[in-house]
Specification:
Strand content of chain B: under 5%
Structural class of chain B: mainly alpha
Helix content of chain A: 25-40%
CATH class of one domain in chain B: Mainly Alpha
Number of helices of chain A: 22
Order of helices and strands of chain B: HHHHHHHHHHHHHHH
Distance between the termini of chain A: 43 Å
Oligomer: heterodimer
Number of strands of chain B: 0
Strand content of chain A: 15-25%
CATH superfamily of one domain in chain B: MetI-like
Radius of gyration of chain A: 26 Å
CATH topology of one domain in chain B: MetI-like fold
Strand order of the largest sheet of chain A: 6-7-8-3-9-10
Distance between the termini of chain B: 11 Å
Helix content of chain B: over 70%
Radius of gyration of chain B: 24 Å
Shape of chain A: globular
Number of strands of chain A: 20
Chain lengths: 558, 318
């Protein structure tokens, strides 16, 4: 292996066109309820040296499973049950553990979705970088450290000489994801599997990581399998795309050709997913807003997180609160609900000031303001049946009992488009993610609220499912005259649902106004950064954007 | 770093507070014991005058409140008073016993902790194998059998059937180190048997619990061999629960060994405590209990501090 280990930048491992990886009829089974179920049904895949292949699909499509199978690896509870995985003359489906261990890390590397979870918290980053090269006998510890610093610099990490000596928790999410890409590159592998590497990041950070990955993969002519659910992201990265659904291949083709002329209806749906857009409704003149945040500042202990935040939620309108993680969006919601009393300022409900602490608010006020959360999995008690989940607010707030309550539960289930007879006696664990979120919506509706605070309610869902939830929320708003405060970091969601937009950064409101104005220039600098960072389906978008930003920086003399 | 110092001094202050509460509890518990030293001492000869005279002489006629603070004040100056029964200085009486108990505990710990951790790591490495199952069954069997039973079985095989080790451990202050090790071998092995299971199973469970983490999967996908994954990637993150269970078991080795001491006729602190309770020799009981309490609190404090130090998030703040 030493003959290929020291290859420098730009050097190619082989002519473009050699086949590096070929899967034939790959079948993978997963264990569920004491029996094996097939989750990947005979997939063929070919990857050439230096090529980037995008694997795209919704959750459960088997894309990550296939990505891992390219390393001959199946997660606990899964097994490769059939087919061949030929990597450079070795069939990984049948190879011994020792053979696979030699290839992993050295010739095939992996970049995980959550770098924060995939780095060992007990060791310094550079130690984790050096582990594979030293273990595989590719580099000495000394050389590996030098190589790490060089790569950190190429990936534009700050202080490349010293950043490696930090622990994972001392580095930000976007930096950590780039460090993980560097770690995957440590042995100069022939193939890297990227498993949703930017999904957990903010849009502005996502760009940095995408640019870094694209750049480094080109420099070393590394082949890559890029797994993601986001077609716009994969369009920037991949030469060729495979669309997966339910463990089967739907469509395969060159990136540009597929984006221009999708052959299958499902691909078309994925392409159209960001096009939902609600028509903006103007704020009613002179009416008292149903909810008003007035000069609110708040802190967690001694750490201030909100500074003089003010905005209105008008009746029957949707106000989207946008910003990156840590910008104070969810904290604002906690102040509004009274979970976190503010240090200054107050909340008004229909013009009346509300007590700061929810414990001092009358029950009827609590009823009129409901909340829906980001993670429906954790927001529902797994031991409760749907009947109890929805029935609880009915008896708690409205005092409904017996037949009346039962009838109301059934009405609510029908409203959220779930067949009452099928679902009323199910446990939350027996539902899909989208169905769970619908149950959470029904639970909020059961209290007959005036305002619903939606905290990233679609960000844990697949795009098509998320679109269904957004359509449902829009319909319910019309039927029940609801007002929404909609927290999100995703600007496509803003387009889809908002009437007005509030942009937050570092605990402050930086810009606010009707949606139409917000999407038209001129913007506040930060709004501009947010808007321009949303990936577009155009494969040239990332390169163009980076070029533009580079020029802007040059213009400013940086 | 100052955050760590602050945290440690907080724990230390809490430990002292606990210790103070414990002195109150010990004193009150001793007060509540039925009977009275003066009556026990005089036996048949007890008349009201003689009992009162002895009480006055020993200060037992003072109110409990006063006696508590007198006792506490003396203890703080290192003076535990004199035994009521033998009139010897308690520090002289308890000192060698404490040494004996600590010696046995350390001996057992030196065997038990490395063996338990190694067995636990191996059990996690070969999870659900025959080895894993037999170690688990063996450890559970050892912990389920009463200490005296395990002790007598060992004595039967290693002292009676084969005269390899002495059956009793009657050490004195003149016994040399080597002789002590030999005499105490069977008691130490007995204690190892009863404490090892907890530590071994906690090590196994803590490691297995981490094996599903993404960073373990990452290590596997870097081609790291299984043994190294467990020792390098899982173990450092599993230290906190392991340290705590080790500390609990070490505390047990010191405060819970009365039965083993009796079986091997070993002059440890546990025996002294039991004898003194029988004789109503309250100052000795109080002193022994205090030693136990200090041991327990110190070991838990140490476990807390080590857990904190094993967490890089606390050791290296952002």
């Amino acid at each position: 292996m030493s003959d290929r280990s020291q290859s420098g930048a730009g050097e190619s491992h082989g002519a473009q066109g050699d086949i590096l990886l070929r899967m034939k009829g790959l079948r993978i089974e997963g264990r569920a309820d004491e029996q094996w179920l097939e989750i990947v049904h005979g997939v063929d895949l070919t990857l050439r040296r230096g090529e980037v292949l995008g694997l795209i699909g919704e959750s459960g499509a088997g894309k990550s499973t296939i990505g891992l199978a390219a390393m001959g690896y199946a997660r606990d509870g899964c097994r490769i049950s059939g087919g061949e995985i030929w990597f450079d003359g070795v069939d990984l489906a049948k190879a011994s553990d020792a053979t696979k261990r030699k290839l992993r890390g050295s010739r095939i590397a992996y970049v995980a979705q959550s770098a924060a979870a995939a780095f060992n918290p007990a060791h310094r980053l550079i130690d984790q970088y050096c582990e594979a090269p030293v273990l595989h006998g590719v580099l000495s510890r000394h050389d590996a450290e030098a190589a790490a610093k060089d790569l950190y610099a190429r990936l534009h990490l700050p202080q490349p000489e010293t950043i490696g000596f930090r622990y994972p928790h001392q580095v930000s999410g976007g930096q950590l994801q780039r460090m993980m890409t560097a770690m995957a590159m440590s042995c100069r592998p022939d193939l890297i599997v990227f498993d949703e590497p930017t999904t957990a990041l903010d849009v502005t950070t996502q760009i940095e990581v995408m640019a870094a990955i694209k750049d480094i993969v080109r420099q070393f002519n590394t082949a890559a399998i890029y797994v993601t659910h986001d077609l716009a992201v994969v369009a920037q990265m991949a030469d060729r795309i495979m669309v997966m659904r339910y463990g089967d291949l739907v469509e395969e083709g060159e990136t540009r050709a597929m984006l221009d002329h999708p052959k299958q209806e499902y691909t078309g749906q994925l392409l159209a997913v960001r096009e939902l857009a609600k028509e903006e409704a103007k704020r009613p003149e002179g009416a008292t807003p149903v909810l008003a945040v007035r000069n609110v500042s708040a802190a967690y202990g001694k750490v201030p997180v909100l500074f003089d935040v003010s905005f209105d939620v008008p009746k029957k309108r949707t106000v989207a609160v946008v910003g990156e993680s840590g910008s104070g969006k969810s904290t604002t919601a906690r102040v509004i609900t009274g979970l976190l009393p503010p240090s200054e300022g107050h909340i008004e409900f229909n013009g009346e000031p509300l007590p700061a602490d929810y414990r001092q608010r009358p029950k009827d006020h609590l009823r009129r303001m409901q909340m829906i959360y980001q993670m429906p999995d954790t927001a529902l008690n797994p031991k409760q049946r749907i009947r109890d989940v929805i029935g609880r607010p009915l008896s708690f707030y409205l005092g409904l009992q017996g037949k009346q309550k039962e009838a109301r539960i059934r009405d609510l289930l029908a409203l959220i488009e779930l067949e009452p007879d099928d679902y009323i006696d199910r446990l939350a664990t027996e539902l899909s993610g989208g169905q769970k979120q619908r149950i959470c919506i029904a639970r909020a509706l059961a209290a007959e609220p005036e305002v619903i605070l939606c905290d990233e309610v679609t960000s844990a869902l697949d795009q098509l499912v998320a679109e269904g939830i957004l359509r449902l929320l829009i319909r319910l708003q019309d039927e029940f005259d609801l007002s929404y405060m909609f927290i999100t970091h995703d600007l496509a969601t803003v387009k889809a649902i908002a009437d007005e937009v509030v942009v937050m950064q570092n605990g402050r409101v930086v810009e606010a106004g009707p949606k139409g104005e917000m999407f038209q220039p001129p913007h506040h600098d930060y709004t501009d950064l947010l808007l321009s960072s949303v990936p577009e389906m155009d494969p040239d978008w990332l390169d163009r954007l980076l070029a533009e930003r580079g020029e802007q920086l040059r213009d400013r003399g940086i | 770093m100052s955050a760590i110092l602050k945290m440690i001094s907080q724990r230390l202050a809490l430990g002292l507070l606990t210790l103070w509460v414990v002195t109150i509890i010990i004193f009150m518990a001793v007060e509540l014991l039925p009977g009275d030293f003066a009556e026990a001492l005089l036996g048949q000869a007890a008349t009201e005058e003689t009992v009162a005279a002895i009480r006055r002489e020993l200060g037992l006629d003072q109110p409990a409140f006063t006696r508590y603070f007198l006792w506490l004040g003396d203890v703080l100056q290192g003076d535990f008073g004199r035994s009521l029964a033998s009139d010897r200085l308690i520090s002289e009486l308890v000192g060698p016993r404490v040494y004996n108990t600590l010696f046995l505990a350390a001996y057992a710990a030196v065997i038990a902790v490395p063996v338990a951790l190694t067995l636990g790591v191996l059990a996690a490495l070969y999870r659900n194998s025959l080895y894993d199952r037999s170690v688990n069954v063996g450890a559970l069997a050892a912990i389920s059998s009463p200490e005296f039973f395990a002790a007598y079985i060992l004595v039967y095989f290693f002292a009676v059937q084969n005269a390899w080790f002495p059956a009793i451990a009657r050490v004195s202050e003149t016994t040399g180190f080597g002789a002590r090790l030999e005499m105490l071998f069977l008691p130490a092995v007995t204690l190892t048997l009863v404490t090892m299971a907890h530590m071994m199973r906690m090590t196994r469970a803590a490691i297995i619990n981490l094996m599903a983490s993404p960073y373990i999967e990452m290590a596997r996908l870097k081609g790291v061999p299984r043994g190294r994954i467990i020792t390098k990637h899982a173990l450092p993150n599993a230290l906190s629960p392991i340290i705590n269970v080790v500390a609990l078991n070490l505390a047990y080795l010191i405060v819970g060994v009365v039965v083993v001491e009796v079986v091997f006729a070993y002059p440890g602190l546990g025996q002294l405590l039991v004898d003194s309770v029988a004789k109503r020799d309250m100052p000795v009981v109080q002193a022994s209990c205090l030693v136990f309490a200090v041991t327990y609190i110190l070991l838990n404090l140490l476990a807390d501090i080590l857990s904190i130090l094993s967490n890089p998030r606390l050791l290296h703040p952002r």
